[in-house]
Design goal:
- The complex is a heterodimer of chains A (211) and B (256).
- Chain A contains six helices and 13 strands.
- Chain A has 211 residues and is of the alpha/beta class.
- Chain A has a single domain, classed as Class I glutamine amidotransferase (GATase) domain (Rossmann fold, 3-Layer(aba) Sandwich), CATH 3.40.50.
- In chain A, β1, α1 and β2 form a beta-alpha-beta unit.
- An eight-stranded parallel β-barrel of chain B has the order 1-3-4-5-6-9-10-11, surrounded by seven helices.
- Chain B has one domain: Aldolase class I (TIM Barrel).
- Chain B is globular.
- Chain B starts with 5 loop residues before the first strand and ends in a 6-residue tail after the last helix.
- With 256 residues, chain B is of the alpha/beta class.
- Chain B has ten helices and eleven strands.
- The chains are: A alpha/beta (211), B alpha/beta (256).
- The interface between A and B is large, with 37 and 35 residues.
- Chain A: Its main location: cytoplasm.
Chain lengths: 211, 256
């Protein structure tokens, strides 16, 4: 099987070196770039993201990545968002009372977690749905989370007979929240596979196999 | 579903070498931080912390190099502390491949630096490293005083108030090191952990005093979300991380 090519979207978001290395270790040929041709032509696009929702949305706009992410999804070309790169695919983020529109692929608001200890930092379990490709063989593993905000309600309109509904994986910290969504070419993870040791490596290999 | 208690080995690194050698069987180079980080990762560590004790800031390049090499090889969170004074230092560490930076004296000297760093990179990148000890000073409300320079210098400031202020300013977690307990091997400083836990809602990492696996569950019961130790892992048996996790699990707390 030919080596899969992955572009890690480079828009000034924190520690992307780990994502590049973890994807390489999982067998991909990785490029760190924000050029339209690199976003468009790879087998898989990895969208990292740390920090504030509003800042990440602005940075995505600044590098002109939003249209190209949209073009990929429209063309059925795989995209994997991680952490705030997961959150931006929902309707909006709310931080300190300020609402920022997201990319709106899925309904839902990214809100502060209601838990005694926040940020939610560390290794947690989750509940992948039957048939999940990303979590195949690692359903019972723990993954590394670090975030204060999450989508805690899911009300996707499932009554669309011609559409396959997204597969949603939940976790819990004080309250249940969405840990992952698998939706055709678009997948997104609230946790960090590139920081989740062996389980994370397996998940990245599972993703590469779908490309 | 509950987040697991994190067990974190800490390595002191001086000019790119681990100080106080580490006693791992069959390790070719006991002074190589990259090799040691790999061993701890394989042994089940949930995160790794490097404390850069390099005296000369001119030798910081070596530290960045060690961080970069470590991040190439292990895929669990890496925290680096020591010598972090400003936004630029955190930027350099993150670019080298660190996930978090810890800040100590520089934040005591100028608390605004916490806001500056976390506004730029988010709360999750910054750990407040807080060295505290008991004091008779009536000005210190909690009875625990903030110290700097590895516990040698008292500041006359209340450690609990400082933890609370740092959390409000934006640190994502607090590494609480008890100078009184440090090196005693008599167990963690439960009183100090309880005092800080009562006032802050960010994750709390307990440090100082661990002498055996049985010392860890009480620290968690006192309110720690994570436990950090050095010598017990460096000089104990190779499976000490597992022993510690077994003890935590048997006490009814979740571990990975």
């Amino acid at each position: 099987m030919a080596q899969k090519t992955v572009t890690v979207l480079d828009y000034g978001s924190g520690n992307v070196r780990s994502a590049v290395r973890a994807l390489e270790a999982a067998g991909a040929q990785v490029k760190l770039s924000a050029k339209p041709e690199d976003i468009a032509n790879c087998d898989g696009l990895f969208v990292p993201g740390v920090g504030a929702f509003a800042a990440v949305m602005q940075a995505l706009k600044d590098v002109g990545a939003i249209r190209w992410i949209g073009r990929r999804i429209a063309g059925g070309r795989p995209v994997l968002g991680v952490c705030v790169g997961h959150q931006v695919f929902f309707d909006e983020g709310v931080e300190h009372g300020i609402h920022t529109p997201g990319l709106g692929e899925w309904p839902g608001t990214v809100e502060l977690l209601q838990a005694p200890v926040v940020p939610h930092m560390g290794w947690n379990t989750l509940t992948p749905p039957a048939g999940s490709k990303l979590f195949a063989g690692i359903e019972d593993e723990r993954f590394y989370f670090v975030h204060s905000y999450a989508v805690q309600k899911w009300d996707f309109e499932v009554a669309q007979p011609k559409m396959t509904p997204p597969q949603v994986t939940w976790s819990e910290h004080g309250t249940p929240f969405i840990a992952a969504v698998e939706n055709g070419p678009l997948c997104a993870l609230q946790f960090h596979p590139e920081k989740s040791g062996e389980a994370g490596a397996r998940l990245l290999r599972n993703w590469l196999e779908t490309l | 579903m509950t987040v697991a208690i994190r067990v974190i080995p800490c390595l002191d690194v001086d000019n790119g070498r681990v100080v106080k050698g580490v006693n791992f069987e069959g390790l070719r180079d006991a002074g190589d931080p990259v090799e040691l980080a790999k061993r701890y990762n394989a042994a089940g560590a949930d995160e790794i912390t490097f404390l850069d004790v390099t005296a000369s800031s001119g030798n910081r390049e070596t530290t960045y190099d060690v961080v970069a090499k470590t991040a190439e090889e292990i895929f669990i969170p890496l925290t680096v502390g020591g010598g972090v004074r400003a936004v630029e230092d955190v930027d350099r560490l993150l670019r080298a491949g660190a996930d978090k930076a810890s800040i100590n004296t520089a934040a005591v000297d100028r608390p605004e630096v916490i806001n500056e760093i976390t506004q730029r990179f988010g709360s999750q990148v910054l750990v407040l490293s807080l060295d505290a000890r008991r004091t008779d000073n009536p000005e210190v409300a909690s009875g625990f005083e903030v110290t700097t320079h590895g516990g040698r210098t008292g500041t006359g400031r209340c450690a609990v108030a400082w933890a609370k202020e740092a959390a409000q300013r934006g640190v994502g977690e607090i590494l609480l090191n008890s100078i009184d307990a440090d090196g005693t091997k008599d167990g963690f400083d439960l009183e100090m952990i309880r005092a800080v836990r009562a006032e802050v809602t960010v994750p709390l990492i307990a440090s100082g005093g661990a002498g055996g696996p049985e010392h860890f569950p009480p620290a968690i019961a006192a309110g720690a979300d994570a436990v950090l130790a050095a010598s017990i892992f460096h000089f104990g048996p190779d499976d000490m991380i597992k022993q510690v996790k077994d003890a935590i699990r048997e006490a009814g707390f979740p571990v990975r």
